[in-house]
Amino acid sequence: MSYLSSNVLFLGAGASNPWGLPLMSEFFQLVKQNIGSANIDAFSLFEKNNITDLEDILELINAHSASHVIRMELEPPIKGAIQFVGNDIYYKEDDIYHRLGNPTTFLSGLHRLKRYLERQIFISLRKYDRDRAFQSLQRISSKICINKKLTIFTTNYDLVIEDLCREMKWILTDGFAVETGDPSHTLLWDSKKYVHVENQNPSIVLFKLHGSINWRRIEDGIIKATDVIPPPIYHDPEQPEHILIYPARRKVASEDPFFSCYNALQRTLDEANLCVFIGYSFRDYDCLNRIQSSLLHNKNLRILICDLRATDLKDEFFGINDRVLCFEGAFGMDDAWFDGFKEKLEEIS
Question: How far is Cα 12 from Cα 291, in angstroms, rounded to an integer?
């Protein structure tokens, strides 16, 4: 595959945080400031139980909102459980049952909260500090790309990399292309576009593992839109489906475009010499399994974790492995981080 590269860059949410884009753990406070009365009851239930990470909230809603008995069992552990008793629904806390109302109404509130949170994701990712983002991405790319071509994987939904390629006039290969003879010039998804990457310099080969805020499904397939339209609060069958894997710890990537992107991650790491992870939490189990598999298969692969908690992440997910290396520090714009990053690369090269 022509997208295969000796050095690979993997960007998580922590990479885009210095550019003004929120982490999922910070997203809770942003939503709390603007949430309306229609969603406050369900939202408060998570807050009082110290469940303030968006991944945890959406996973609980997805897993339990259709159940007859709803038990919230993620870390940190919830104090009680939500139970149906007769025609009412109760929340148990410290051996006291608090009536939450009619089950149908409460479950409807959970679904409404879910759509509200999903909409806020789009809104929060539309604006970022372009100068900071472009400068830091260029500095990182210049240190790890080979022959001016770099393969990037990301779990982020934002459009920073696409905007950078447009600004710098870099060649971008992201699985979308205009079909021959299409007068509308619609960018349509086709995984085969990755097979024959143009060897023009400089170029970025981009895989967005969880989708993007401008990917939508239409009758002819999946398109990359030129605008970003948040999903409506209420379901509208006339609106094109947005193509994202929303935050959750247990993500399923069994359909395209996600399957092709995850498959490319496995293929790439099976052949790569180095993969640099910046601001990634390794909480996507499907992705983590592929990384661990490549470490077993590819004895030349080394992983560099760049994060404030780099050592903790290594210990938690990789244990004792001398091919998993750590560079601890808060990713940002300061020269000290980039100087230390350069030294670390020279040390392991």
Answer: 14
